[in-house]
């Protein structure tokens, strides 16, 4: 019985070993590029098949079906259907930074359209693609048998330029993948030369030459961190933003997209923009159309009142117009996958080119020595022409002539006298020179015309030139710096011939799209009620009225269910832009920082949300004052300038001065701003330049003007010093900074107001009692506000019953300028038991000057608002200044 050759094996071991073999085959032979020429085997075989077909420029293109057929039949037996997409990719200018294939016909589009069938398209190599195989016939690279051992193919190309770094590459293997960005040819050449000159150069040193990826589709790279990371470690991520500009067409603005990020499908981008508009995610887009030809041009039409920069920022955020390109520089180095930094990749390329140059030099040296041996034979024959002719003539056949010439001997000295250096190393017996078999054959092949004197001189000149070439080639092999110089010279020649300017710009600052970038910087009215309800409302919801108007309905103070909330009223009102910062100061002396857009938005009649739902207030805390910091575009050091100061004023007349930068490191849970004793309250906070003049105004109508330099700067935890001395029962209601070309506007609780030049209040030392600022009577009521105003300012007045009115300061119907102790004029009609609670200046919108009423007064009419009623001007009750009214206490 015959023994069985079968044996049991472990299925797990067999599967493991088979999968490892398969994975290594995929990694080495299919998916990953070689670090030396930057090509995958399929790409290399396609280019080599084109080399065999002689498809170099200027030769005309050949059918892609023929190229793919030869590649499949001779080198890559996986079918033309899988070879053709690789060929197409190497010819797409939006996919390759430097294309290796020169296409003819439809090779697809950046919109993802497929190429035409291979029978319809043609191709040849580009000049730069051809340089990858320069000197391949000079034994510069190894050749191995093809899949059926009929032919041989190169294992790698000589690669006259660093294709891996210039064109990058992608590939997914088993358990690993590569995604290498393209770079600028000129920058890479400069980086290679720099590393040759200084092998110890760092990756940061190379960054001076290699700025970063250079994508064929252009665009802008934002930020340098990702570039530094992948250059150092071989992996990282860069943010690529498409190029778009805002233009005006027919009174409407539009966004023109001219560049899209690398590997982004333009058709899908246009489709996504349309979806965002249809789904109301971006509401200001009316239409989008693709007007692209060979150049990208996508037009996004906007609404007439749209904010184009905000729309563009939303496009960056919600579409692939801004994309991240993840980088993982994995390539085959020495038959093994390896993650490379920029310096590692350049070092591998330099070593490859060094080997290519040495092998080419050795090849040329062998060829030169063979030619020298031939010319030596000619020179020796011509020097003994009569003897050689006699030997050949006396011989009966070629073999006999060969034997005769072979036995002919003459001295080495004679050979040297003929100018022969004996480079061919013939057999020398004593002082005799013996011909080699090759030399004998060359003598027998000597033609009669070469016996002329002119030909003899030409042979001698060629021989001398050849000896100089041999000397130079041997010097190259002997000196390393000669090899490296040749590498640099050849690279510089390629850069001069094929280099192009950088397509991709780099924005070193490159901030990302933050939430603030998606929000228009509109003017808002911010209100804070007595019971702590905060909201923001666009100023366009308020109409501009004449002084004395009845006003529009503001906050609906009776929406709440509880009796306490029904009595709520607006306590603080001011104007701010959406990007501005707000510093909320509490009665306990803490400060919280928030941006305006983060406050809840509510309509003009809405109440808003509790401030405790917006800020992380402590149970015992209540907002007493709010300071607006104008945004500087981004939250940077310029906004928190050490040359700016915050002045605090408390109800008992205390003042404190603290540098603004002390509040820079704020926290969500707030920080200490001022030390306030129990029973005291924070009245006002102002921002100054450190040398301003300031005014204190009290409830009983007193005012003190002093210089800020009298107040020394203190830390956040200090309590302050005395600002104004108060009479019994009086308390501070306002702290105001004196600004150029402004007057002091004083408003009483019964709706009267007056503005007086600051010069009418003489300077008094800090801590004095001050002078009278308004004549307090039963008709006027007590002082509720005192602010600095310009003639062109607008004011918002709010009452205890939620009514508000917006008026101009200057103009025929504005607030008349009066003396320091006058009663003022009526600013607003008040109902019974209604009083003025707060006053604030309003930043006017551009639209505020559009409408005009019958009386010639500029008005902005809010939709659904009450009809304005012109109020009669109350006669000013002028009062002369008396010593009692002007008493001071220093």
UniProtKB/TrEMBL annotation:
List GO molecular-function terms, semicolon-separated: ATP binding; DNA binding; DNA topoisomerase type II (double strand cut, ATP-hydrolyzing) activity
Q: A Gene Ontology CC term for this entry?
A: DNA topoisomerase type II (double strand cut, ATP-hydrolyzing) complex
Q: Which organism is it from?
A: Prosthecobacter dejongeii
Which keywords does UniProt give here?
DNA-binding, Isomerase, Topoisomerase
Query: InterPro entries attached here?
Result: GyrA/parC_rep (IPR006691), Gyrase/topoIV_suA_C (IPR035516), Topo_IIA-like_dom_sf (IPR013760), Topo_IIA_A/C_ab (IPR013758), Topo_IIA_A_a_sf (IPR013757), Topo_IIA_dom_A (IPR002205), Type_II_DNA_Topoisomerases (IPR050220)
- Name of the protein: DNA topoisomerase (ATP-hydrolyzing)
Q: Where is this region: Disordered?
A: 844-890
Lineage, broadest ranks: Bacteria, Pseudomonadati, Verrucomicrobiota, Verrucomicrobiia, Verrucomicrobiales
Which EC number(s) does UniProt give? 5.6.2.2
């Amino acid at each position: 019985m015959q023994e069985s050759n079968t044996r049991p094996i472990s299925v797990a071991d067999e599967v493991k070993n088979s999968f490892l073999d398969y994975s290594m085959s995929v990694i080495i032979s299919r998916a990953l590029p070689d670090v030396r020429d930057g090509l995958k085997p399929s790409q290399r075989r396609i280019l080599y098949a084109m080399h065999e077909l002689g498809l170099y420029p200027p030769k005309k293109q050949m059918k892609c079906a023929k190229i793919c057929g030869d590649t499949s039949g001779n080198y890559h037996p996986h079918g033309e259907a899988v070879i053709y997409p690789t060929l197409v990719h190497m010819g797409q200018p939006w996919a390759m930074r430097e294309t290796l294939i020169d296409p003819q016909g439809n090779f697809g589009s950046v919109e993802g359209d497929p190429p035409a069938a291979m029978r319809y398209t043609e191709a040849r190599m580009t000049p730069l693609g051809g340089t990858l195989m320069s000197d391949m016939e000079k034994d510069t690279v190894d050749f191995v048998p093809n899949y059926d051992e009929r032919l041989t193919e190169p294992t790698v190309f000589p690669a006259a330029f660093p294709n891996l770094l210039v064109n990058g590459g992608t590939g997914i293997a088993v358990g690993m993948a590569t995604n290498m960005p393209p770079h600028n040819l000129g920058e890479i050449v400069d980086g290679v030369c720099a590393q040759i000159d200084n092998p110890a150069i760092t990756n940061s040193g190379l960054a001076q030459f290699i700025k970063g990826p250079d994508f064929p589709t252009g665009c802008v790279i934002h930020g340098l961190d990702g570039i530094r990371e992948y250059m150092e470690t071989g992996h990282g991520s860069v943010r690529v933003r498409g190029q778009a500009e805002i233009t005006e067409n027919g009174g409407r603005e539009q966004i023109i997209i001219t560049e899209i990020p690398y590997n982004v499908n333009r058709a899908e981008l246009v489709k996504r923009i349309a979806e965002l508009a249809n789904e109301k995610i971006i509401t200001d887009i009316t239409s989008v159309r693709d007007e692209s030809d060979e150049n990208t041009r996508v037009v996004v039409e906007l609404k007439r009142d749209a904010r184009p920069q905000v729309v563009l920022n939303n496009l960056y955020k919600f579409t692939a117009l801004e994309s991240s390109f993840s980088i993982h520089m994995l390539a085959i180095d020495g038959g093994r996958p390896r993650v490379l930094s920029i310096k590692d990749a350049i070092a591998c390329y330099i070593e490859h080119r060094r080997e290519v140059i040495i092998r080419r030099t050795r090849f040329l040296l062998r060829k030169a020595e063979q030619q020298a041996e031939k010319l030596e034979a000619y020179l020796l024959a011509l020097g003994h022409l009569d003897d050689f002719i006699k030997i050949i003539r006396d011989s009966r056949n070629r073999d006999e002539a060969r034997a005769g010439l072979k036995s002919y001997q003459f001295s080495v000295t004679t050979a040297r006298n003929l100018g022969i250096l004996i480079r061919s190393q013939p057999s020398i017996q004593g002082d005799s020179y013996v011909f080699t078999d090759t030399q004998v054959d060359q003598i027998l092949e000597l033609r009669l015309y070469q016996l002329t004197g002119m030909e003899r001189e030409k042979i001698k000149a060629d021989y001398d030139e050849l000896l100089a070439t041999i000397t130079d080639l041997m010097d190259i092999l002997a000196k390393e710096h000669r090899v490296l110089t040749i590498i640099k010279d050849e690279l510089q020649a390629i850069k001069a011939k094929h280099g192009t300017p950088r397509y991709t710009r780099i924005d070193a600052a490159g901030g990302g799209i933050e939430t603030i970038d998606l929000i228009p910087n509109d003017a808002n009215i911010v209100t804070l009620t007595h019971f702590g309800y905060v909201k923001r409302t666009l100023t366009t919801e308020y109409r501009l009225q004449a002084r004395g108007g009845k006003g529009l309905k503001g906050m609906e103070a009776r929406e709440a269910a509880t009796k306490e909330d029904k009595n709520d009223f607006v306590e603080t009102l001011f104007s701010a832009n959406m990007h501005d910062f707000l510093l909320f100061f509490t009665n306990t002396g803490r400060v919280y920082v928030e941006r305006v857009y983060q406050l809840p938005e509510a309509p003009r009649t809405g109440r808003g949300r509790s401030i405790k739902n917006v800020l992380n207030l402590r149970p015992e805390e209540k907002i007493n004052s709010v300071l607006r910091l104008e945004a500087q575009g981004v939250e940077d050091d310029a906004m928190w300038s050490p040359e700016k100061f915050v002045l605090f004023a408390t109800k008992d007349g205390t003042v404190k001065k603290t540098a603004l930068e002390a509040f820079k490191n704020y926290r969500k849970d707030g920080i200490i701003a001022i030390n306030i004793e129990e029973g005291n309250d924070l009245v006002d906070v102002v921002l100054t330049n450190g040398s301003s003049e300031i005014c204190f105004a009290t409830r009983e109508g007193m005012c003190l003007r002093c210089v800020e330099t009298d107040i020394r700067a203190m830390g956040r935890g200090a309590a302050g010093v005395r600002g104004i001395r108060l009479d019994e029962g009086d308390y501070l209601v306002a702290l105001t900074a004196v600004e150029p070309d402004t007057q002091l506007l004083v408003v009483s609780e019964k709706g009267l107001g007056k503005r007086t030049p600051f010069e009418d209040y003489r300077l008094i030392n800090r801590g004095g009692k001050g002078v009278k600022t308004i004549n307090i009577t039963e008709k006027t009521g007590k002082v509720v506000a005192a602010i600095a105003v310009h003639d062109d300012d607008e004011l918002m007045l709010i009452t205890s019953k939620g009514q508000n009115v917006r008026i101009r300061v200057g103009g025929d119907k504005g607030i008349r300028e009066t003396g320091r102790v006058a009663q003022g004029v009526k600013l607003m009609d008040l109902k019974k038991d209604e009083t003025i609670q707060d006053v604030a200046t309003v930043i006017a919108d551009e639209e505020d000057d559009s409408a005009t009423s019958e009386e010639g007064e500029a008005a902005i009419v809010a939709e659904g608002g009450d009809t304005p009623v012109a109020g009669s001007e109350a006669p000013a009750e002028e009062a002369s200044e008396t010593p009692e009214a002007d008493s001071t206490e220093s």
